[in-house]
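Comment thread on ticket #2218

A.B. wrote:
> Attaching the input chain for the structure job we discussed in standup.
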Amino acid sequence: MTASRAGTVELVACEIATALQPLEQHLSADRRIEFFQDLGLWLPGGLDDAAGAIGTVAVQAAGLSPIILRLSAAIQGGQPGPIIQEGGALLGALKEVLTAITELRPALDTAVANASALTDAQRTRLRAEMEQLPKRLLDYVLITYLEGKSTGVVEALTMVGIIEDLPAFFDPNDFTVLPVRRKVLHLDRLLTLHPGFANHS
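C.D. wrote:
> Ran it. Output below, let me know if you need it in another format.
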């Protein structure tokens, strides 16, 4: 993909959308339990109470692919009009995906509230975990995308603290805690990397 006729917004939108595309597969009915476990989240009894909200994210993510293809073709063909049109369409589709991801939070909270075989402490911890799920999900897909493009970039971002590698935590007294090692994206720390930002804060 060339940037000769594509604006920065369209190019950034295309990269973000490409990173989010795998959510279609990750959140499919036969993969979502495994994917949530990869994120360190597991709920006794499953996620049926949140199935609708999870499925909506998968559907919205599936809608990104044809727009990405049309925008990529417009960029390759150096067509300013279609670039603007498809860029706007992609931004709208991204908004729908991100909205659907945000709406996972109350759906998952309901799933935790209705789950059986949980102590009060486990329920409280899981509700806090589900509150963080939208960001954790985005961290996963964005970092995975960066790793696919350049391990050097990921290593550099880890070195300066933009990506944090969290060790697995095991609690022998809580069977709902999954010992999963995961990476966290701290985009806010970008502002501290250049002294010029501090002068404007």
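A.B. wrote:
> Thanks. Noting for the ticket: Residues 8-200 form one domain.
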